[in-house]
Amino acid sequence: MVNHGKGGLRAWAAVALTVTLLGCASSTSCPTSFHVGSINGGAISGQSSGQISSGDLEPDVSNAAGISGGGGLVDGRLRRLAGPRNAKQVIILIAGIHDSYRYFESWAGPLSASGSAVWGWDHDHRSSSIEQSAAMLASDLTTLARAGTPDIVLVAHSIGGLVGKGAIDQLSRTGAAGTFTRLDLHAFGTPWGGFALLEVAMKVPGSIALSKFFRYPMAPELRPSSRFLASLAAPMPPNGELHLYVGTDDGVAQPDTAAARQRYAELEAQARTVTELDGVRHNDYNRLVALTNEVKGTRPGPACTRLPCRLAMHVSQCAATALATAALPGTR
């Protein structure tokens, strides 16, 4: 056995502590979490770059969504929750780690009320890195587009936002984003800046193996300097919009270092709207059912067929590829 000394042991402990706290903070199984909210949301005070008070939180009402039975599965990850089977628009719910799409289950009813189909998508953070999960999501989105549903809106919580943006970037790099009429992402409480503690902890010999042992293979990607987080600064495709939502009391998503703030600034530069939610903590977002009006209120998806849009799509593809292959410190 290799003896790394007290410093090494402290750093190993930091890895274990980080993944434990990260799991608790992102999980609805922790004591401070909230799960299912009412489908009857009120009006939101403010739209882009606005503030929403924690007083708008809806009470906990179990099984309130009135979900209309299951649909088909795509490789066991994607399930239809509500809305018509032949809907032209699909809204896909994605949760963070230690959770499933059921985090947003109470939103399925309101989101499907205007005729959209609502699907849930799950990723296995215990065995897949974020980039691997993003590749799976990109593949599933392509399957939906080929099946006649090219109008896609992703609604993601926490690390699910990293997965969603990574999937869109992969579609942009391959040029497949142009097959969609819409490819939007609404990200709630996503830690775009990563976690500073992992910056130190992942330098310890054996830390990657330890993160896999604790079933957190995404730990190297969550360092502020990681190549993967840097790659997310790639621009959205011309037929896609990025909408960011962050709670003022969200201790997981709020950036707390200069490196994390830089990553946030890069994503904000790509965002169509940035909404600050006053008094909202990391696991409160699903109780703000009124936010479904924000998701439904985004612009209709035009087909990207005219020359200016196709040229913009090509520029987006090149930028996404350049960022993904840049010689940045760390791993994906």
Question: Please, could you describe this protein's structure?
Answer:
- This protein has helices spanning 5-26, 108-112, 130-146, 159-174, 196-201, 207-213, 227-231, 258-270, 292-296, 307-325, and strands spanning 51-53, 73-74, 78-82, 89-94, 117-121, 151-157, 182-188, 242-247, 273-278.
- It contains 10 helices and 9 strands.
- The protein has a single domain (45-193, 225-325), classed as Rossmann fold (3-Layer(aba) Sandwich).
- Helix 8 links the parallel strand 8 and strand 9.
- A 9-stranded mixed beta sheet has the order 1-9-8-7-6-4-5-3-2.
- The protein has 332 residues and is α/β, with parallel strands linked by helices.
- Helix 3 crosses helix 4.
- The longest helix is centred in the N-terminal third of the chain and has 22 residues, at 5-26.
